[in-house]
Design brief:
Elements (H helix, E strand, L loop, with lengths): L11 E6 L15 H14 L4 E5 L16 H10 L4 E2 L7 H4 L3 H8 L4 E5 L9 H4 L7 E3 L1 H15 L5 E5 L8 H8 L4 E4 L4 H7 L14 H9 L4 E2 L4 E5 L3 E5 L8 E5 L1 H12 L3 E5 L12 H12 L3 E4 L2 H9 L8 E2 L3 H10 L3 H8 L11
Parallel strand pairs: 1-2, 1-4, 2-3, 4-5, 6-7, 6-12, 7-8, 12-13, 13-14
Antiparallel strand pairs: 9-10, 9-11
Helix pairs in contact: 7-13, 8-9, 10-11
C-alpha cells in the first residue's frame, strides 16, 4: 500500500471509513463493531509514519449540522483506540456529500497526499467522499474493503456447493433484485422475516395482520412460478389479540400478526444450512429484538455457527443478531455493510470500487493490517 500511495512517512492520508455506528438514547455508542473493523488499516498507516485523517457519515442529518448526529462520541472512542488520529465532523452535515459536489471533494482532499477507501458499507453510494478523492489523490483500497470484495464476489463466482442463501428482513421490495440474482447462483434461496408474508400471500395464504406489500405480490408470484428453488416457512410464530403469542401454520387468522418463523421452519432451515458448502445470511427471521420472537433468528445463527460450510453474514440486522447472540466469532465473514453487500452480490460492482479502478493514480495496494 505504501507503494500505491507514494510512501507514507510524514504524509497526510485521508481515510474514508464507515463509522455509522448505532447510538443509544444517551448518545453513547451501542455497538462499536464498525470502529473496530477500521482499526487495522488505520494502525497500518500510522505505523508507517502517516498522519491519518478519517472521515465518515453518521445517520441522515439532511445536509446541515445537527447535534443528534455529531461524531463526537465516535471521536472519543477512536481517540482511545487509535490515539493521534483526526476524525472530521459528520460528512453529511454538508449537502455536497450526498450531492457529490466537486467543490466539497476539493475541500476534503486539500492538504492530503493520498486516499484510502475503507468504507465498504458506504461504497454503494456515489457520494463525494467515496467517488471524488480518487480523481485527485493517489488511492488505494483498505484491507477491510478488499476483504469484503474478495469474499462477496467469491460467492458470485465460485461458491462451494451446495450454496444456500438465507434472506430475511422486513420488505421484499428491498431485496427482489438480489433474490433474482441469487436464484441464478444459489442452489437454495430460503426466505423468512417479514418479507416471507408477501410470498405466502402470492401462494394464496391468508397472512392476517402480518407485514404485506400488496404491490409486490405479483412480482413474488412470477418468481415462484419460475420453478426457482425458493424455500418459505412452513409455520409461523404470531402475536394474537390480547398479546398472546401463538404457533400457527402459514394460514393466519385476521388480527394475527406473524413476527417470527415457527420452530418447524427454524429446524428445516437449520438442516439446509448444516448440509451446505456455502451459506449467505442477510436479514433476521423475525423481530429478534423482542425475546418472544427471537427464536427463529437465534436457531439460524446457531446453525451458521456450527455448520462446516463457509459462512457469510451480510451485515445489517443479521450482523447485529449474531453479535447479540455472541456468535459473531464463529462466522467466517461478517460484513460491515448490509446494503452494500447485497448490491455487490446483485450487480457485481459498486460505485466506490469503480471510482478506484478508474482513478489515474490508483494502484492495487491493500493495507494488510
Amino acid at each position: 500500500m505504501s507503494e500505491a500511495l507514494g510512501g507514507l512517512e510524514s504524509r497526510r492520508i485521508l481515510v474514508r471509513a464507515d463509522l455509522n455506528v448505532p447510538l443509544d438514547a444517551g448518545g453513547r455508542i451501542a455497538d462499536d463493531f464498525r470502529v473496530e473493523a477500521t482499526l487495522p488499516t488505520i494502525r497500518w498507516l500510522t505505523g508507517r509514519g502517516a498522519a491519518v485523517v478519517v472521515c465518515s457519515h453518521l445517520g441522515r442529518p439532511g445536509g446541515e449540522p445537527d447535534s443528534r448526529y455529531s461524531l463526537a462520541p465516535v471521536r472519543e472512542r477512536l481517540a482511545e483506540r487509535a490515539p493521534g488520529v483526526e476524525l472530521l465532523e459528520n460528512l453529511r452535515f454538508n449537502r455536497g456529500e450526498t450531492g457529490n459536489d466537486d467543490r466539497f471533494v476539493q475541500e476534503l482532499v486539500e492538504g492530503c497526499h493520498g486516499y484510502v477507501n475503507e468504507a465498504f458499507g458506504a461504497s454503494h453510494r456515489a457520494h463525494a467522499s467515496i467517488v471524488g478523492p480518487p480523481r485527485y489523490l493517489p488511492s488505494a483500497a483498505g484491507s477491510l474493503l478488499a476483504r469484503e470484495t474478495e469474499v462477496l464476489l467469491g460467492l458470485r463466482a465460485a461458491p462451494k456447493r451446495p450454496f444456500v442463501a438465507v434472506l430475511g428482513g422486513a420488505k421484499v421490495s428491498d431485496k427482489l433484485g438480489v433474490i433474482a440474482a441469487l436464484l441464478g447462483i444459489a442452489d437454495e434461496v430460503v426466505i423468512g422475516g417479514g418479507m416471507c408474508f408477501t410470498f405466502l400471500a402470492a401462494l394464496g395464504h391468508p397472512v392476517g395482520d402480518s407485514l404485506l406489500q400488496a404491490d409486490q405480490v405479483e412480482a413474488c408470484s412470477h418468481l415462484l412460478a419460475s420453478g426457482a428453488r425458493i424455500r418459505l416457512p412452513s409455520d409461523i410464530t404470531a402475536l394474537a389479540p390480547g398479546e398472546r403469542v401463538v404457533q400457527a401454520g402459514v394460514d393466519l387468522r385476521p388480527g394475527w400478526r406473524g413476527l417470527d418463523i415457527g420452530p418447524g421452519s427454524a429446524a428445516e432451515f437449520s438442516d439446509l444450512i448444516a448440509d451446505a458448502g456455502t451459506v449467505l445470511w442477510n436479514g433476521p427471521m423475525g423481530l429478534f429484538e423482542d425475546p418472544r420472537f427471537a427464536a427463529g433468528t437465534k436457531v439460524v445463527a446457531q446453525a451458521m455457527a456450527t455448520t462446516r460450510a463457509f459462512t457469510v453474514v451480510g451485515g445489517g440486522d443479521s450482523a447485529a443478531a449474531v453479535r447479540r447472540f455472541g456468535l459473531d466469532r464463529e462466522m467466517d465473514h461478517v460484513s460491515t455493510g448490509g446494503g452494500a453487500s447485497l448490491e455487490l452480490i446483485e450487480r457485481g460492482d459498486l460505485p466506490g470500487l469503480e471510482a478506484l479502478r478508474n482513478s489515474q493514480t490508483y494502484r492495487k495496494g491493500v493495507a494488510n493490517g
